[in-house]
Automatic annotation (TrEMBL):
Coiled coil: none annotated. It is an enzyme of class 2 (transferase). It catalyses: 3-methyl-2-oxobutanoate + acetyl-CoA + H2O = (2S)-2-isopropylmalate + CoA + H(+). CDD domains: DRE_TIM_IPMS (cd07940). One of its GO terms (molecular function) is 2-isopropylmalate synthase activity. Residues 405-528 are annotated as: Regulatory domain. This is 2-isopropylmalate synthase. Its cofactor is Mn(2+). Keywords: Acyltransferase, Amino-acid biosynthesis, Branched-chain amino acid biosynthesis, Cytoplasm, Leucine biosynthesis, Manganese, Metal-binding, Transferase. Homodimer. The gene is leuA. Catalyzes the condensation of the acetyl group of acetyl-CoA with 3-methyl-2-oxobutanoate (2-ketoisovalerate) to form 3-carboxy-3-hydroxy-4-methylpentanoate (2-isopropylmalate). Belongs to the alpha-IPM synthase/homocitrate synthase family. LeuA type 1 subfamily.
Length: 528
């Protein structure tokens, strides 16, 4: 029978330790609501003794998100009374509150950090657990730096705090030093002894990613008996981060025959959670990050696109739909082959192309793809139109009449009236508009929207630098929503305002393309 693995999410505590990622109370509550929707079992909401602000935020999470029995709310304390009191007062409003405390067990921590004897530290831990138990029934004890601790001392500590009443024992690889086989063997031994002592106490792991092995170590622990895993969304956390929740969960699902373990996670909420965390914390997700990176389901090489179009399982082990994405993404670039381009054209309705016409259009595609990094649907329409015009076909449909192109723009940034003016071409016509906004980008997008009159909601705006130095390219990625559909668009330019305008224009043109695509093939067919 498959085992249940408890998922303890520490995005709001270990994740928030990332420099610059501090959240305010409202953001913490919103992320906690989303984590609940995702289906985590336990939320670690913060470190209340660190500041009044964090205390208030943890308290708000406990009261607003923790008022149901299906989720446990906790927060971190050092093994000292003041911290434990602070956690208690912050989480007690939850229906299922827990006190989590941490104290080191490695020689480095005991001798160098605390300058105490092992016996003294063990006693401090036991006393702290006994005290916490007078406040709440659920107490987790973390043996900090467990993976670098002398095993018998680690066990002596665990045995003592279990006898003192700890209900969960968390074994952290605090500095990401562990190696999967070695860590798995340690967990196996601990699990064996713990289950003999008290089978109701959960064995948990908390792995850091300093050597890139956090997910592997977490999975090795599950294989060797761990009941619970501590993770963060997008793998954020102290230094190189923690085990990524989405990686651990999708590995358990995808390789179920190996792990024979399940979580309660609703995987379809993974992408929503990842995007929320990334945007609130201002932490970009590495593009090639497993599961939640921009390219995790994007296929660009011609060989792969051809294989996928023949059979998805040729290059796809996780379906994008399973993590809440619409579909796999075949990005049309200069490396895309004929099969992918043909498929994209067919989706736009060009399914009856004569072989020589397809070849001509494919040539046009390659020329544009060489000049432009990614080719969008609206570019394909224009390539088709240009091809037919050039080859003197009659009754050519003017697809370019439907699409917008930014010709010029001016943006004024000041605190009173951030404003923008734009000049946009649509087919043979040129339009101008100006707008004032809450900021320069808002003004720019409002001015463009006045011309396009296509109503979209800006869901995400993300800007990053592609290269270094004063000629650095600014890359803008946006997600807009129109009629319940999400459209992702990108653009890059040395002028970030231009990149912002081009990205928005690409998104609008994608909405236009989608509208055209809905028109029947016969109506769209070019009469020759
Ligand atoms: O990495 C660590 O050891 C921790 C503990 C507080 C669990 O974050
Ligand atoms: Zn940690």
């Amino acid at each position: 029978m498959s085992r249940k693995i408890w998922v303890f999410d520490t995005t709001l505590r270990d994740g928030e330790q990332v420099p610059g990622a501090k959240l305010n109370l409202y953001e913490k509550v919103e992320i906690a609501q989303q984590l609940k929707k995702l289906g985590v079992d336990i939320i670690e909401a913060g470190f209340p003794a660190s500041s009044q602000g964090d205390f208030d935020a943890v308290q708000a999470v406990a009261q607003k998100v923790g008022k149901t029995s299906d989720i446990m709310i906790t927060a971190l304390a050092r093994a000292v009374q003041a911290d434990i009191d602070s956690v208690y007062h912050a989480v007690k409003g939850a229906e299922n509150p827990m006190i989590h405390m941490v104290l080191g067990t490695s020689d480095i921590h005991v001798e160098k950090k605390f300058s105490k004897s092992k016996d003294q530290i063990l006693q401090i831990g036991v006393d702290a657990v006994k005290y916490a138990k007078t406040l709440l029934p659920e107490v987790q004890y973390s043996t900090e730096d467990a993976s670098r601790s002398e095993f018998e001392y680690l066990w002596k500590t665990i045995e003592a705090v279990m006898k003192a009443g700890a209900t969960m024992i968390n074994v952290p690889d605090t500095v990401g030093y562990a190696e999967p086989e070695e860590f798995g063997a340690m967990i196996y031994k601990l699990n064996d002894r713990m289950k003999n002592l008290n089978p109701n106490v959960l064995l948990s792991v908390h792995c850091h990613n300093d050597l890139g092995m956090a997910t592997a170590n977490t999975l090795a622990a599950i294989k060797n008996g761990a009941d619970k895993v501590e993770c963060t969304i997008n793998g954020i956390g102290e230094r190189a981060g923690n085990a990524a929740l989405e990686e651990v969960v999708m590995a358990l699902n995808t390789r179920h025959a190996i792990y024979n373990a399940d979580t309660r996670i609703n995987t379809k909420e993974i992408m929503n959670t990842s995007r929320l965390v990334s945007s609130f914390m201002g932490l970009d997700v590495q593009v090639n990050k497993a599961i939640t990176g921009d390219n995790a389901f994007a296929h660009s090489s011609g060989i792969h696109q051809d294989g996928l179009l023949k059979s998805r399982d040729a290059y796809e082990i996780v379906h994008p739909e399973d993590v809440g994405l619409d579909d796999m993404e075949l990005i049309l670039t200069a490396r895309s082959g004929r099969h992918a381009v043909k498929n994209a054209l067919e989706k736009l309705g060009f399914s009856q192309l004569a072989p020589e016409d397809f070849e001509g259009i494919f040539e046009g595609f390659l020329a544009l793809a060489d000049a432009k990094k990614e080719v969008y649907d609206h570019d394909l329409y224009v390539i088709v139109e240009n091809y037919y015009e050039k080859h003197d076909k009659t009754n050519v449909t003017n697809y370019s009449d439907h699409f917008f192109e930014v010709e010029d723009l001016q943006v004024i940034s000041n605190s009173s009236f951030p404003s923008a003016s734009v000049k946009i071409r649509k087919g043979g016509e040129v339009f101008k508009a100006s707008a004032v906004g809450t900021g320069p980008i808002d003004a720019l997008y409002s001015a463009i929207a006045e011309i396009t009159t296509i109503k979209v909601k800006l869901v995400e705006y993300d800007i990053s630098s592609v290269s270094r130095g004063k000629d650095a390219l600014g890359k803008v990625k946006i997600i807009v929503e129109h009629d319940g559909e999400k459209y992702i668009a990108k653009a890059a330019d040395t002028d970030i305002l231009k990149a912002s305008a081009f990205a928005y224009m690409n998104a609008i043109n994608s909405v236009v393309s989608a509208g055209l695509r809905k028109v029947s093939v016969e109506e769209m067919a070019i009469t020759r």
